[in-house]
Amino acid sequence: MSNNESSASDYRGRAIFRRSDLERHLKARWNEKGEKLGDNERLGVSIAELVSHSLSRNSAIDLPYVDLWVAILDECISWLISLDAVVHSGRLQHRKMENFERSIVVLLSKIVSDLTAIRHLVLAGFDGAARTIVRSVAEYMEVLVAVVHQPTFADEFVKSDTPEASHLFWQTHLRGGKLRRRITAAWADFFTTNAAHERSTATETFANWGRGSNALLSGSTHPSFGGGLLAAIPLKGKYEDENWLGTWGDKADFSVNTIYIITQFIFPVLILGSNFPFGFVREGDTEPFRAYDRNQELHRHVRTGRDILASLIISLCQEINRPFVFPEFDMSIWPEQPEPA
Questions:
Q1: Rounded to whole angstroms, how far apart are CA atoms 5 and 14?
Q2: pTM score, two decimals?
Q3: What is the pLDDT of residue 52?
Q4: How many angstroms separate the CA atoms of 107 and 162, rounded?
Q5: Do 216 and 230 touch, CB atoms closer than 8 A?
């Protein structure tokens, strides 16, 4: 064993099986099967080369609508990072982190991680994979809203720290419309100053806003012909005469809709619990989060930024603004569906 191989041993002293070792092993096996491969030869596509070319190709594609919505997603991620930092550092330092704070930090960490992964997938041209994550992160954002609305819910959430406990938590508190009822209750409390009819209408509208996309997201998550087809040929504003499948990574305008769905689930996080986390007092809590401090940049970002982002999200979906922020899709390559009999 060479010095380099020795220094690369793991903590148990075993030599690492490197990529170069794998390549030699596979080439030897192919040679045994009668395939005499040269030094730089292989059978099949080199995925490393395919990915490298795909990234270079996608970076050269000009999609202004996608660029706009990725920038919107970036602003949302940035705000969530600031919120996470304020929650983590804003409590009184001598007090240990309780279930509520622990839950908020863990939920925000997962949300930021997933949203960043979605960003990478969109720019790499894998919108179908991005939508699969959207379905998951949307539920995390709804649990975040539920915990902020009812902080004692955190006591149940922290118990979901094993696969078995996680499944039990989902069965007990999320499945079968249970999470939806929590979100509806949060919106109902938010609209308590309105007349009963207006409150009911507004509550139902906002509680179901993001959930209106669940069928579309399910089509990407569960096996379906349409989901597989869109992975191979994503919807675009214009198709080029190019032999390149979405399977290999093809940045496309359909990702605008993907990020728009995300903003529908971020909107309640921005609006509900608008005083959170500054001076946030729970029942029986004698040591709340510290008060808002205008001299703290992250404090300003969280308090003022939530209003700016919420206003932006509402304005984006206004009918008068849609032509400026949503692309029209090129349907010319898709066969027309026959009229129902």
A1: 10
A2: 0.86
A3: 94
A4: 15
A5: no
